[in-house]
Amino acid sequence: MKKSLLTMFFSACFFVLLFAQEAQPLAAGMSPDRLTRIDQTVQEYVNKKWLNGAVAIVYRNGKLAYYKAIGFDDAEKKTPMQKDQIFRIASQTKAITSVAVMMLYEEGRFLLDDQVGKYIPEFNNQQVVDKFNATDSSYTTVPAKREVTIRDLLTHTSGIGYAQIGSKTITAIYAKAGVIGGIGMADKPLLATKMKILGSLPLEHQPGEKWTYGLNTDLLGYLVEVISGMPLDKFFRTRIFEPLGMKDTYFYLPKEKYSRLAGLYTLDSTDHAIKMPEHIDLNGGFYRDYPNTDGTYFSGGGGLSSTAYDYAIFMQMLLNNGEWNGRRLLSKNTLHLMTMNQIGELPLGANKFGLGFEVITEAGSAKTALSAGSFDWGGMFSSTYWIDPKEKIVAQLFLNIFPNSHSELHEKFRTLVYQAINN
Asked: Which segments of 107-249 does DSSP mark as H helices, in order?
């Protein structure tokens, strides 16, 4: 018993040292002086009132190189931004859902090219939009040439579009049927209800023929529920968050953490950041402080809120080929599968898409500071992250502003991270 307790104690100490919250840029092979350029650049945007504040975190070689809060959580009250602020991470949820799916894949519960209808019958015998009448949102269809597969969902090539923010055609069709984007709702629907309705609606294009950003990952979240027999929030908590030590990541925050929710901002007519009204009309309505409710809709495509520190733990697990602090979530080979080109020659700018992530190609690396082989994504409220296996970097910039007319800050942040590398 004594030996077991000592082992647990030293293991906990090792964890704290391994992922400490005090930056050690020199130990990470980065220049402290050159990293201050991040402070200066973000502060410039705050001073010009283009945003209220930000939290940024950078790990390199498993060591914390940079972790700062800049600006204000509440610009009007001059309340400083805190490093442990909880941000609405929106589409950064997709990476976590994709990991959950691949954990079940590793258990032999399905194959990637299985038809979705095998597990969710509403997705059998799907149709594709042929003609659309914008005056009344009516449409005609043609049969899908093949069934949608789980791989199609992970790669956003299924033909499923996005409610509220997708094309005019698909937004109108989904709105008429009551299918939603999944975040900011005042009512309390269930994921299963909306996903079953989605199965009755037409695809935007033939499966596999285009890359179309859509509700694919929300549907994957429901697939996790169906296959695991657990609500998505419980699966995340017991299979991902607790094993990794992610203590501040939720669909809906516990009441004792309501005060840590980051203020959500928007832009006024002069392009200055102002606090977003409590309710806005975003194709059906949007409630600003939705994480501070007891909601019931677990959007695997965009519903989570988290801290920069929590999400950095998740990213470090990915960089470590699926393992963190002695807990393995995925195998090395599965991470390789997730981070290689899965869309062939389908166009996606200079880059490609894997199973849940954009993958930086050689051509893409020529346009940005990221190494080829890096993988990344971001969120609706102007957040961004990436994992660079070559440079052993995980990095995250959290803003909470929508829309953001100065999103070039994200590319500047990437540049500022890489220019600080010493060796």
From this structure: 150-155, 168-177, 191-199, 216-228, 232-235, 242-244
How far apart, in whole angstroms, are the C-alpha atoms of residue 95 and residue 301?
A: 9
Q: Which residues pair with 68 in a beta bridge?
A: 56
The torsion defined by the Cα of 397, 313, 95 and 345, in degrees rounded to 10, comes to 80
Q: For 18-44, what is each residue's pLDDT tens digit? A: 556 788 999 999 999 999 999 999 999
The share of the chain scoring above pLDDT 70, in percent, equals 95
Upper half-sphere CA count for residue 381 (Cβ side, 13 Å): 30
Residue identified by tokens 């059998």 is 124
Distance from C-alpha of 24 to C-alpha of 150, rounded to nearest angstrom: 42
Q: Please, what sign has the CA dihedral across residues 212, 218, 224, 229?
A: negative
Distance of CA 168 to the CA centre of its chain: 24
Strands (E) across 219-366 are located at 265-267, 273-275, 279-280, 286-287, 305-306, 323-324, 327-328, 352-353, 358-359
Nearest to 320 by CA among 306, 335, 308, 337: 335
Instruction: Tell me the per-residue pLDDT of 86-136, one tens digit each, with 9 for 90 and over.
Output: 999 999 999 999 999 999 999 999 999 999 999 999 999 999 999 989 889
Coil, strand, or helix at residue 88? strand
What pLDDT does residue 15 have? 47
User: Using N-to-C axis directions, what is the helix angle for 93-106 and 308-319, rounded to 10°?
Assistant: 40
Q: Are 251 and 221 contacting, i.e. CB atoms less than 8 angstroms apart?
A: no
pLDDT recorded at residue 112:
98
Mention every residue, 6+ apart, whose C-beta is less than 8 A from residue 204: 128, 129, 159, 160, 161, 166, 167, 169, 170, 212, 214
Which residues on neighbouring strands pair with residue 388, listed in sequence order? Answer: 393
Higher-confidence residue: 131 or 16?
131
Alpha-helical regions (H) of 254-331 = 308-319
pTM: 0.93
- Distance between CA atoms of residues 81 and 142, nearest Å: 52
**Beta strands at 63-74 and 383-388: parallel, antiparallel or unpaired:** unpaired
